Amino acid sequence: MFECEVDEIIYPLDEKWMTRALENLLTNSSLHNPIGTTISVCLQLIPEKNAQYSGVYITITDNGKGMDEGTVARLFERYYRGTNTTDYQVKGSGLGTAIAKQLIEAHDGHIYVDSEIGRGTTIIIKLPSKN
After folding, report:
1. Taking the model in full, what pTM does it have?
2. Is 84 exposed, middle or buried (0-12, 13-18, 19+ CB in 10 A)?
3. How do strand 2-4 and strand 39-46 relate by DSSP bridges?
4. d(Cα 79, Cα 65) in Å, to the nearest integer?
5. Are the beta carbons of 124 and 109 closer than 8 angstroms?
6. Are 24 and 10 in contact (CB under 8 A)?
7. How confident is the model at residue 76, as a pLDDT?
8. What does the pLDDT read at residue 27?
């Protein structure tokens, strides 16, 4: 599901790299949750009077299995995989979220994670206002 407060958002970013960051995060949400999990993406403007471009919140929310505090704390570490590494059904190198974080920070943004076992996960990306 995709939600947006406005019809169009114009924000200066590197489309290739931001696409990669979002694909990494959405792929993880899909791969690490059971079939039937709902994944929502929401875009919101962060208005600022004296900025040429308003800031943007990008929120990715799922109603999946969620993560424990230890996994959340290590989520953006390179090569960390919150899953059993002997589970061959879940593929990956453990770099996706670390790369996503670096790409978001390269845009002067920040990424936050809120998750609870049995409740799901919310990832919030905040991109600042720009002049």
Report:
1. 0.84
2. exposed
3. parallel
4. 21
5. no
6. no
7. 83
8. 92
Rounded-to-integer distance, Cα 99 and Cα 78, Å? 8
Q: What is the pLDDT of residue 5?
A: 77
CB 21 within 8 A of CB 103: yes
Both tokens of 29, joined, read 């949400």
Q: Residue 116, Cβ neighbours under 10 Å: how many? A: 14
**What span, in angstroms and rounded, lies between the C-alpha atoms of 89 and 85?**
10
AA letter at 7 = D
Q: For the chain of 131 residues, list the mean pLDDT of each consecutive stretch of 10.
A: 82 94 94 93 88 92 94 78 49 74 96 95 95 83
Domains contained in the chain, CATH given: 2-127 (3.30.565.10)
- 110-116 sheet: strands from edge to edge: 2-4, 39-46, 55-62, 120-127, 110-116
CA distance linking residue 114 with residue 61, whole number of Å: 9
Identify the pLDDT of residue 4.
Answer: 83
Residue 2, number of CB atoms within 10 A of its CB: 8
Dump strand ranges (E) for the chain.
2-4, 39-46, 55-62, 110-116, 120-127
